[in-house]
Amino acid sequence: MPTPRLLVPVLLLATAAAAAQTPPKKFAQPTTVRELIAVSQPSDWRPIDPEHTLYLELSSGRVTIELAPQFAPKHVANIEKLARAHWYDGLAFVRVQDNFVAQFGDPLNSKPEVGEKRLPAEFTRSAAGLPFVRLKDPDTFASEVGFSGGFPAARTSADGEAWAVHCYGALGVGRDNDPATAIGTELYVVIGHAPRQLDRNVAIVGRVVAGIELLSSLPRGNGELGFYEQPEERVPIQSVRLASEVPAAERKPLEALRTDVPIFQKLIELRRNRKDAWYKVPAGKIDLCNVPLPVRERAEKPEKADKAEKRR
Amino acid sequence: MPTPRLLVPVLLLATAAAAAQTPPKKFAQPTTVRELIAVSQPSDWRPIDPEHTLYLELSSGRVTIELAPQFAPKHVANIEKLARAHWYDGLAFVRVQDNFVAQFGDPLNSKPEVGEKRLPAEFTRSAAGLPFVRLKDPDTFASEVGFSGGFPAARTSADGEAWAVHCYGALGVGRDNDPATAIGTELYVVIGHAPRQLDRNVAIVGRVVAGIELLSSLPRGNGELGFYEQPEERVPIQSVRLASEVPAAERKPLEALRTDVPIFQKLIELRRNRKDAWYKVPAGKIDLCNVPLPVRERAEKPEKADKAEKRR
User: Fold this and answer.
1) Which of A11, B145, B220, B258 lies at a CB distance of 3.0 to 4.6 Å from B288, suitable for a disulfide?
2) Does the beta carbon of A178 lie under 8 angstroms from any beta carbon of chain B?
3) What is the DSSP string of B80-106?
4) What is the distance of C-alpha A170 from the center of its chain?
5) Which CATH class is domain B44-311?
6) Up-side HSE of residue A21: CA atoms within 13 Å toward CB?
């Protein structure tokens, strides 16, 4: 019998990237993303800010979320307020709809009121002043797509409207028909093919940078819209904390490959036109939501750790 | 506190569609896919052929796969031969890579040889003679996309090459670097954002029409490329059978909404421009892989059941 057939990897695993932080000379002409990461420089990476990072703790482990105040400042501020008040602790994932979203919140309205009761919509923002590295590939939905501060994004034009895009792992704010009801007490993570129809209809407030597999592998709900029919099916949330409020020993500082550096363009090109022996026909193009956004562990700076310790 | 925030559903659940097979007059102007399905006619549906349907049985339930002989006739024939020989029984899912694929096969090469040892590549086929209902929306990868026999597909032109597209739920044939090693002894199902870079590099042989959630919710593998590191993590396959070879009492006949009927165009338009109160900004466009392909249970015709009974 032939040996087991392998498919080449499409996703860069954070752990794989983290294993290769020392640039070896043998990858002078990288042909894969991993090889490219291996020749990156420290300046190609940006620390993920612990002041805008959520640790969502499940019994299965930690989901780490980078927040996006540049796209939804009021919503992010309110979510951070809720996290500081430990408001999310003890809530649960109540809905997991296949190829769509995993959603958590307070279905029984059991929590005391903290933070804003209504917020103005932050579905889009002005493109003016927003850094934007354009992706040249055509997009079905938007006239311009690209990356801003590490987030997949779109805009109508350089002086028009801009918004974060619903790619896999995006964190969005659930709401009723009234946009002002989106305040951050119900949140969802995209776990399927990008539901781009939600773009400009929801505030995107972050993206999962580690642990997405803990959400995407949850049992799907059998109820309408993927809600769990029985309360005991819900997946409890132990806590949601800002990384900056967690003791240093419990933190795992991360860094993300910058999207505004030349090596990121090389990464995109390697994915547009694969060079390994497995591929017979290069795609020639790439979809915004298929561009890898590498994240890896970084060494914590001691002074940051001390600062957090004092804050406890 | 406000009531729980809901997101409108993006996916039509087969069960939901099945619940509404009688056209009620109140949906004369449908505004949702479910309402549209409710006013469909029997002739808008096509039975899914049990001769080209696989039942993949896991301890958690059944995954139903419609095969696509129109795109990869030799590969489908070999897979059907393997299924008839019960060759897949007792194998396992060995790899589940997040936002990519769930893959099964024979990692220990423990099975006797059945069927072809090598096959010519069937990554594309001639577009001539292939029914093709074009989707007008722009696509990042292909000059023309649309639907053929219920499958998302692409082509270079009406007399060029055509291929089935890697949307969520697609079943593809794993292989080594040599295309001839793709024979159907290792298969994968897409469980993430469409990996369109695989298009034209792999034979697509089918799509999951029921039970995809049993695969997409599997634990992700911690090894390289999402392989399970420990053999005991692998997810056993009880059996893979052609639906036509299963006793009538164990079958669940399905039918799919035809993609070459006017109501399917109405469905697409309802998804391009949502009409319910939740959406504030219609997308105006739709991605090929976000078009719902409704499937529902159908009443089995008695003669079909008898035929299968006799074949046991």
Assistant:
1) B145
2) no
3) HHHHHTTTTTT-EEEEEETTTEEEEE-
4) 5
5) mainly beta
6) 15
What are residue B138's DSSP bridge partners?
none
Distance CA B33, CA B37 (A): 6
The amino acid at residue B80 is E
Give contacts of B141 with chain A, Cβ < 8 Å: 283-285, 287
Third-level CATH fold of A14-311? Cyclophilin (2.40.100)
Start-to-end CA distance of chain A, whole Å, equals 60
**Chains A & B: contacts with CB separation below 8 Å:** 236
CB-based contact A176 B99, cutoff 8 Å: no
Grouping H, G, I as helix, E, B as strand and the rest as coil, residue A30 is coil
Query: Measured between CB atoms, does A219 come within 8 Å of chain B?
Result: yes
Decide if the complex's ipTM is over 0.95: no
**B173 contacts in chain A (CB < 8 Å):** 5
Q: Over the stretch A124-176, which tens digit does the pLDDT of each residue have?
A: 999 999 999 999 999 999 999 999 999 999 999 999 999 999 999 999 999 99
Residues of B within 8 A of A283 (CB-CB) are 141, 196-197, 199
Tell me the per-residue pLDDT of A189-217, one tens digit each, with 9 for 90 and over.
999 999 999 999 999 999 999 999 999 99
pTM of the model: 0.90
Residues of chain A with C-beta less than 8 angstroms from the C-beta of B197? 10, 271, 274, 279, 282-283, 286, 290
